[in-house]
């Protein structure tokens, strides 16, 4: 096992803080995690980089990712979606392991390049679908795969936020097709689709066909400084229906206009013998109805026997959103240190990208699209 992994991180704002916080927590709470060195922080603005490096604990900075990707063991690609492909591909070609934010890319074409580079690389690839590593989600997967729910019949995946409900909220790169690829579809829908595949893929198979309906409610927004108005060129909300290999149906939905929902990813799985449901806004609990239960029971998933919880606090002491990044970093960096594959990999990220692309095509054609 590698003694210490040097980290290069592209991006230092929202996701840069989330992952840097995770790297800071790892040695304290996961002593078996590989040791890491926060080596180089990468961005375009040198002054902002210097400030961020001090805050996030990086030893040096660079404004050129090409100059450093072969100098580190692990490259974190946390930039906007349109810069996922080139740095990740070149890093993998150099044998550097790559941890990339979701969605894998802003187009299916670039996702294909990234998948192919990962297949040929000696480095490990990973996509940060961090919600897989919530203890309640891990427990839900155990229940489903043990057969407690019986045959899977129906899945609902809904991700709702309201940060754009105000039409005067400022424009950002997430609202530009050239940079983001899609709007809520890629940003939130990628998480939802990945969780559906993660939870029921073994029992129900993959998604075989899918529909799509994308909507943009506010066509333009002011820039943050108020100096101009820019077009919104992506979707604000989407809905989709899907059919899985075993005949199960899935309803998938996401919106940034759902007033009152701050960050609510909800998953419900109905089977022939039972059901379960989960909400990210109450992430320590799983609601479950078994074959002999009259209704749903609420299970607090904070016992030492629950996945990851033994690393944290005494039983009953809840975890939060930031802990999902500690868990996903632990799993990915452990795989890198061991020279093994990581899941979710670029292959899995590519499959999610295929399904996102299929939803867009279904919307354009106004018809179901086969995905297998």
Q: Mind telling me the CATH superfamily name of the largest domain?
A: Dihydrodipicolinate Reductase, domain 2
* CA-CA gap between termini: 38 Å
The topology string of helices and strands comes to EHEHEEHEHEHEHHEEEEEEEEEEHHE
CATH class assignment of the largest domain? Alpha Beta
The tally of beta strands, per DSSP, is: 18
Shape: globular
Question: Portion of residues in helices?
Answer: 25-40%
Alpha carbon gyration radius? 20 Å
Instruction: Report the CATH architecture of the largest domain.
Output: 2-Layer Sandwich
Fill in the CATH topology of the largest domain.
Answer: Dihydrodipicolinate Reductase, domain 2
Number of domains: 2
Give a verbal description of the structure:
The protein is an alpha/beta fold. The chain has two domains: 4-130, Rossmann fold, CATH 3.40.50.720; 133-319 and 345-370, 2-Layer Sandwich (Dihydrodipicolinate Reductase, domain 2), CATH 3.30.360. The protein is 33% helix and 24% strand. Strands 7, 8, 9, 12, 13, 14, 15, 16, 17 and 18 form a ten-stranded mixed beta sheet that branches. Strands 3-2-1-4-5-6 form a six-stranded parallel beta sheet, with helices on both faces. Helix 1 packs across helix 8 (321-338), helix 4 packs antiparallel against helix 9 and helix 7 (184-204) packs across helix 9 (346-365). The relative contact order is 0.17. The mean pLDDT is 96.
């Amino acid at each position: 096992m590698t003694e210490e992994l040097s980290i290069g991180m592209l991006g230092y704002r929202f996701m840069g803080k989330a992952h840097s916080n995770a790297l800071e927590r790892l040695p304290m709470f996961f002593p078996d995690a590989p040791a890491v060195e926060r080596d180089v922080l990468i961005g375009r603005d040198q002054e902002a980089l210097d400030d961020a490096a001090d805050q996030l604990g990086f030893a040096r900075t660079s404004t050129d990712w090409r100059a450093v990707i072969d100098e580190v063991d692990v490259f974190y690609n946390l930039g906007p979606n349109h810069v996922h492909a080139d740095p990740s591909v070149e890093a993998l070609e150099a044998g550097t392991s790559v941890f990339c934010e979701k969605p894998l890319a802003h187009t299916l074409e670039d996702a294909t390049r990234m998948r192919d580079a990962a297949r040929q690389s000696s480095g490990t690839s990973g996509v940060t679908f961090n919600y897989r590593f919530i203890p309640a989600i891990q427990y839900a997967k155990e229940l489903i795969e043990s057969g407690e729910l019986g045959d899977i019949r129906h899945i609902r995946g809904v991700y709702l936020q309201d940060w754009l409900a105000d039409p005067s909220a400022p424009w950002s790169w997430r609202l530009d097709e050239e940079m983001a690829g899609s709007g809520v579809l890629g940003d939130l829908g990628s998480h939802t689709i990945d969780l559906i595949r993660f939870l029921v893929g073994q029992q129900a198979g993959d998604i075989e066909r899918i529909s799509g309906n994308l909507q943009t409610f506010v066509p333009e927004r002011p820039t943050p400084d108020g100096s101009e108005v820019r077009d919104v060129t992506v979707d604000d909300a989407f809905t989709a229906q899907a059919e899985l290999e075993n005949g199960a149906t899935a309803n998938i939905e996401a919106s940034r206009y759902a007033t009152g929902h701050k960050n609510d990813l909800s998953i419900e799985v109905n089977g022939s013998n039972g059901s379960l449901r989960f909400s990210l806004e109450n992430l320590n609990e799983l609601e479950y109805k078994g074959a002999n239960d009259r209704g749903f029971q609420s299970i607090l998933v904070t016992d030492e026997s629950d996945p990851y919880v033994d690393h944290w606090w005494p039983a009953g002491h809840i975890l939060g959103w930031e802990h999902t990044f500690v868990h996903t970093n632990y799993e990915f960096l452990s795989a890198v240190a061991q020279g093994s594959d990581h899941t979710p990999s670029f292959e899995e990220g590519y499959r999610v990208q295929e399904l996102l692309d299929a939803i867009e095509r279904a919307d354009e054609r106004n018809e179901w699209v086969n995905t297998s």
